[in-house]
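C-alpha cells in:
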C-alpha cells in the first residue's frame, strides 16, 4: 500500500514595514565616509592642515600679497604636476620633465637671440622641440616595452648634458643672453608672465592658467572618451587594447602632454627672468611626481584625479614660502618639506583606510 506525502506550503514572513534588507555587498555607507574614501579629499585635508599651521606659525602668511605669492609658487609646480599626474594615471613616469622645462626655455632664448629673430619664432621652435621630446619618450616606451623609468632616466641625462654643453658652446657661458629688448618680448611676456591687480594685490597670470588647466584636465578625465582611455591603459593596457582602446596613441599623447607642460613653464621662466640658467631643473621632476602622488595618483597607474595634484602643488608652495615668512633658516626647507609631505601621505592613507573599513 503506497503512502502519499503532502508537503506543507512554505510560509514566508514579510519584512517588517519600514525595514530594508541589505547585505555587506549592497549596504550604503554614509556620505561622509564615501567622501573621505576619495584620495583628493584626503590631500585637501592635508593641505588645509599645512595652511592652518603656517597661518599660526608665520603671521605674514595672513597678508593678501603673501598668499598671492604662495599661490604663484604653487602654480609653477601645479601646471607641470597636472600632465605628470595624467601620465601617471596612464601607468607611466617621466623623469625628464624637470630638465625638459629648461631645454624649452634655452631653445627659445638662444634661437631668437643668436639668429636675431622675433622671440615668437623661438617660442614656436621651443614648442616643437618639447613635443618632439615627449613623442620620443612615448614612442620608445611603447615600441621597446621597457619601463618608462629607464627610458626617461636616459632622456633626463641626455637633456641635462645637452643643456649645459650647448649653452656653453653657443653663448660661452652657463646662462643665456638677456632677450628683454628683442622684438616680440613684451607681447610674449603678457601671455606667459604678466600679472594683474585684484583688491590691491598683484596676481600672477600663471595662477589663472593653473586653475583653468586643472578644470580642463578634470573634464577630460571624467567626461571624455580620452579620459576613459587614460584610466584603461593605466589599469591594464592588454585588456584595454583587447576592447579597442588605442594604447599607442594614448601613451604617446600623454608624454607629449608633459612636453607641452614643460614648454609652457619654460616660457614662463624665460619671460619672467629674461635669461635662463642651463643647469637648473634637476630635481624638479621629483617635485612634480610627488605632487601627483600626494594628490592620490597611484604609482601603479589606473587611479587618480586632476584635483588632487592641485592641492599637492599647493602644499609645496605653502611650505616653500611659509618657511621664509616664518623667518626660519631656509637650509631646513628640504627636511621640513619631507616631514610635512610624509605626514600628509600618512594622513591621506589613514583617512582612506578608515573610510573604506566596514
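Residues out:
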Amino acid at each position: 500500500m503506497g503512502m502519499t506525502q503532502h508537503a506543507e506550503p512554505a510560509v514566508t514572513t514579510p519584512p517588517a514595514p519600514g525595514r530594508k534588507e541589505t547585505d555587506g555587498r549592497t549596504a550604503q555607507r554614509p556620505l561622509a565616509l564615501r567622501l573621505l574614501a576619495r584620495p583628493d579629499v584626503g590631500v585637501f585635508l592635508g593641505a588645509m592642515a599645512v595652511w592652518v599651521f603656517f597661518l599660526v606659525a608665520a603671521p605674514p602668511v595672513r597678508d593678501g600679497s603673501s598668499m598671492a605669492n604662495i599661490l604663484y609658487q604653487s602654480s609653477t609646480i601645479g601646471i607641470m604636476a597636472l600632465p605628470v599626474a595624467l601620465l601617471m594615471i596612464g601607468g607611466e613616469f617621466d623623469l625628464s620633465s624637470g630638465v625638459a622645462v629648461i631645454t624649452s626655455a634655452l631653445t627659445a632664448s638662444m634661437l631668437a637671440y643668436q639668429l636675431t629673430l622675433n622671440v615668437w619664432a623661438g617660442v614656436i621652435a621651443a614648442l616643437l622641440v618639447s613635443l618632439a621630446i615627449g613623442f620620443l619618450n612615448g614612442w620608445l616606451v611603447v615600441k621597446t616595452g621597457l619601463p618608462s623609468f629607464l627610458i626617461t632616466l636616459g632622456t633626463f641625462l641626455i637633456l641635462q648634458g645637452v643643456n649645459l654643453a650647448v649653452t656653453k658652446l653657443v653663448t660661452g657661458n652657463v646662462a643665456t643672453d638677456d632677450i628683454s629688448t628683442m622684438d616680440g618680448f613684451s607681447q610674449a611676456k603678457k601671455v606667459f608672465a604678466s600679472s594683474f591687480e585684484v583688491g590691491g594685490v598683484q596676481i600672477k597670470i600663471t595662477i589663472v592658467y593653473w586653475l583653468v588647466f586643472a578644470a580642463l584636465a578634470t573634464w577630460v578625465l571624467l567626461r571624455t572618451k580620452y579620459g576613459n582611455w587614460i584610466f584603461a591603459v593605466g589599469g591594464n593596457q592588454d585588456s584595454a587594447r583587447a576592447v579597442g582602446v588605442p594604447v599607442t596613441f594614448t601613451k604617446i599623447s600623454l608624454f607629449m602632454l608633459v612636453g607641452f607642460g614643460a614648454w609652457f613653464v619654460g616660457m614662463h621662466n624665460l619671460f619672467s627672468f629674461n635669461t635662463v640658467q642651463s643647469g637648473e631643473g634637476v630635481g624638479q621632476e621629483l617635485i612634480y611626481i610627488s605632487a601627483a602622488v600626494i594628490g592620490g595618483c597611484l604609482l601603479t597607474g589606473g587611479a587618480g584625479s586632476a584635483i588632487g595634484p592641485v592641492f599637492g602643488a599647493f602644499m609645496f608652495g605653502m611650505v616653500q614660502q611659509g618657511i621664509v615668512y616664518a623667518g626660519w633658516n631656509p637650509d631646513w626647507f628640504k627636511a621640513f618639506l619631507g616631514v610635512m609631505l610624509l605626514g600628509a601621505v600618512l594622513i591621506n592613507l589613514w583617512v582612506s583606510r578608515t573610510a573604506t573599513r566596514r
